[in-house]
Amino acid sequence: MRILLLGGTTEASGLARLLAANPALRPVLSLAGRTAAPAAAPIETRIGGFGGPEGLAAWLRAEGVAAVVDATHPFAQVISRNAAAACAVLGLPLLALRRPPWTAREGDRWQEVDTVAAAARALGEVRRRVFLTVGRLELAAFAAAAHHAYVVRTIEPVGDALPLPDLTVIEARGPFPEEAERDLMRRHRTEVLVTKNSGGSATYGKIAAARALGLPVVIVRQPDAPAAARVERPEDALAWLMAHRAASTRRLV
Ligand code: NAP
């Protein structure tokens, strides 16, 4: 059974590893191409956009795909909407493989906001030392709050995405353990952390570190996702795929 796995997350990599060991399925992993040197995948991989929902539907039809797993990042809204639209048109089963968001614990000092632009506004008028970890693509929102001092961490070079007078850039790829995050925040005398509520363990260290240091966190809530069946673990996504394969084999008999 031909499967499309929309990736770019730890969960997608986990499912790719399971699929590589399963000869019953013919998966292809799709990446947007935002990372110049993505980690090598153990299954067939394609890179780049499809050309909107129509392009995706045409691609699915041409490839004879029988089911789609959307394992994109919770903040990658466009591709998830496109996948839902294309699967609806073709009548294909769609599964969202998505980690749950983090929830605040005792000691957390969270200010929750709905957008990255709102996070920039929430930093306020008084100059603060900010640790900014919202990803490279949405940094431009902070140009409207140029009076703060920023330490920005991204996987890819920031380039001119954030032309700010007081900017330190750290290029690094997670996971980021709590102890290293505490050291980093102490070293840079961080006063506030800004992050998306991405969920998962790979980048939770900064949340735990901010709690330990008593620092406030401006955190962007996850956007609503299109309606679809949903699981949180790669193992459960594989079970869902195998159940669909069994059902389609029964229909053919
Ligand atoms: P997005 O805004 O939802 O998508 C923008 C366009 O990028 C889509 O319309 C699609 O182009 C293309 N695209 C996105 N994901 C794709 C995929 N897996 N395969 C092929 N094309 C894809 O996405 P984004 O927020 O820029 O995220 C891009 C990628 O980075 C995703 O794979 C996501 O999982 C990963 N990521 C995102 C974040 C985040 O905070 N947004 C964080 C970590 C990782 P077409 O319309 O031409 O098909």
What does this structure look like?
This protein has 253 residues and is of the alpha/beta class. The chain folds into two domains: 2-99 and 224-252, Rossmann fold, CATH 3.40.50; 109-220, Rossmann fold (3-Layer(aba) Sandwich). It is 32% helix and 22% strand. Helix 1 (10-20) packs across helix 7, helix 2 (52-63) packs across helix 3 and helix 5 crosses helix 6. It is elongated and about 70 Å long. It binds NADP nicotinamide-adenine-dinucleotide phosphate. Residues 6-9, 30-32, 34, 49-52, 55-56, 72-73, 75-79, 82, 135, 137, 196 line the site of NADP nicotinamide-adenine-dinucleotide phosphate.
What's a concise summary of this model?
By secondary structure, the chain is of the alpha/beta class.
